[in-house]
Amino acid sequence: EAVYSFAAIEQKWPKVWDDLGVFTPADDGSRERRYVLDMFPYPSGDLHMGHAEAFAMGDVVARYWRQRGYDVLHPIGWDSFGLPAENAAIKNNAHPSDWTYRNIETQAESFKRYAISVDWSRRIHTSDPEYYRWTQWLFTRFYERGLAYRKNSPVNWCPKDQTVLANEQVVNGACERCGTQVTKKSLNQWYFKITEYADRLLDDMEQLKGHWPERVLAMQKNWIGRSEGAHVRFNIEADGGKPAEQVTVFTTRPDTLAGATFFVVAADAPLALDLVTDENRNALLDYRESVKALSDIERQSTERVKTGVFTGRYAVNPLNGEKLPVWAADYVLADYGTGAIMAVPAHDQRDLDFAKTFDLPVKAVLDTGEEDPAVSGVATTGEGTLINSGTLDGLPKAEAIPAAVRMLEEQGTGEKFVNFRLRDWLLSRQRFWGTPIPIIHCENCGEVPVPDDQLPVTLPTGLRGEALAPKGTSPLASAEEWVNVACPKCDGPARRDTDTMDTFVDSSWYFMRFVSPHFTDGPFDPEAAKNWMPVGQYVGGVEHAILHLLYARFFTKVVHDMGLLEASEPFGSLLNQGQVLNGGKAMSKSLGNGVDLGQQLDKYGVDAVRLTMIFASPPEDDVDWADVSPSGSAKFLARAWRLGQDITSEPGVDYSTGDRKLRALTHRTVADATELLENNKFNVVVAKLMELVNATRKAIDSGAGAADPAVREAAEAVAVMLSLFAPYTAEDLWNLLGRDASVVNAGWPAVDKTLLVQDTVTAVVQVQGKVRDRLEVAADISEEDLREAALASDAVQRFLDGRGIRTVIVRAPKLVNIVSA
Ligand code: ANZ
Ligand code: ZN
Q1: Which residues are within 5 Å of ligand 2 (an ion), measured at CB?
Q2: pTM score, whole prediction
């Protein structure tokens, strides 16, 4: 008798699947379409345990929908531009493409072994010219629409990677990639105008509610940071040889205007230098130096003692004409709001801390019933009524806010304003291994986009090794022949833009490319996009909650506005899988607790590893590899497989004559699995499958016997359901059962509802020894459930008539006797 050998079945089936093309969607409209996508991998070495988990999850969904009869698009590609390839090239005197494509091949082989059910003919790499041609094409469209522009401003700079970073890539003041403290540098950089879409990015989250994890939506909402308030214009008096000028502040509390006792501009904003009198200039310059080293987080920390310098100027409060000293401080950020604030120490703790440090006045304008902030040192921020505010006195806060705005509008000194925390997306990078920005700079014509028929602008050849080392300017600049070109407009001498795009640009539209990856007339075929988009189920880590997912939403909206795409959201539902830990901690080199995926696969087999990933916990939760048992999974798989060896009936037997109890369990399991899969409770489905396999084994050995049709029915259902988690074993089981390949297309078993009805009996309920009710209950009802059902009976309650209960005697399933007080 043959024994279960994962190695043998891993060899046997891939070719069969390939030949049958079971993972290639028909794409002919004959069946309803569904698009399942895992966040595409970055080719950093071979696959790791995290990939194994995430891709196992995505594959369950893809395989489930296939079994349900959908035409499923499940593609794979690589996010293959980026810094690690470049760093490896510098170190090994090589070209980034060497490292990149070698790693891609390694990962592709591992993915094939791992048997993810993807259509390999749709494979894409973002570093291929056929792909980045369209990234450039999209950039050009954004440029034409005014959504890509260049500006000079202070930007986040990573001193280690020697490149700028988007705000989204600065985490707690450090470079998201290498952890180095980020500094600011004034540079001329390219931006995408994502702020123009802030409202829609926020509003359309309504459509995603219930389909995306709550916390991802909350993080995006917070990142976009919509604040309703007002702009208020203050006159700054002429002083120290400086002329009068107007400065606007953003405030969410226009009702507190009368409580403003000083005025603050961000010390690092150009405005501070502009306002400061000669006398105070040196102090400001010194102070600015000390501010440079601080991250935004540190600047806003409530733990730090407030710092700042007086500018020598005064602002005039438009409400009451009071003169407010103008300070420059670091707790006001240059790139939020207008970079200037009216300080209301009584009702804003940051302002109060500053006032205390520099001995500035505190004036309460809202009576909240709490202690005077000037005394307590605690700003009052709650509800209350206005005081010390002239005509606004007596109004509750909620009414005072619009009233104050109306006054400002009448005066012409301010108006309602909605401010966003979201900044434009800084997309240019001073690195080599990325998509070149398709712009030519001409002395006569300025910025000229490279004409579409000259795309792609491919990376210059010949640069490798040391030539790629970061120098603060792009390595592309050293490729003289590549840089110097004729202007497409006037044919005069011109230079190519030498920056490359942030790799998040590449990944902001790859899911659209997959619908027609070989299309040559555009980034994707609009017809195909109409058929497939949006992605039905997207799977990936929560670390992308803001960056990638926000950018992808933005790109989708712009492409929608261009008329190329019907969908205006890219991902209908989102599943964030948990992490794979070892010993309760994330796997890392420094902890030395890494688990090698290849070794696990060699030891336990692909199916056992996949099944373990799924069975260990709900998909959203972390899996601790120290707590799981891949050998237990392997044993279960062998057990399931052996059913196929023992069953003696032929395919196509009439199940209806089979053992009713086993049939009921089979149909109940399918019905439950269906519901559980629709709700991403994959681990519970595995548990149910284990029960069904055990019951089937029992039926063979000590019950109905190996020839009973119910046993075949159960085993076939096991094979189909198991194909979602353990594709090799399921296919081999299907084969042992005498069925033709492939189980992938077997179709989800139909549930016979009549088999779901459990056997029932009549239970008698007595009160004080007299029969008061009869209940139809399941034959296998528990004592507890029966007791509960009896006490809930209307008839019983009527006879108890409010009297307490002394004892309840339960003899399940037939009798309940209630003795009242
Ligand atoms: C006066 C005031 C009184 C304020 C009060 C608050 C409470 P959000 O909700 O985050 O939008 N602010 C404005 N620009 C700032 C900047 N660049 N750096 C630091 N703080 C800034 O916060 C808006 C509030 O934060 C604004 O409203 C302003 O202080 C401050 F009782 O104005 B408020
Ligand atoms: Zn020109």
Answers
A1: 442, 444-445, 487, 489-490, 492
A2: 0.87
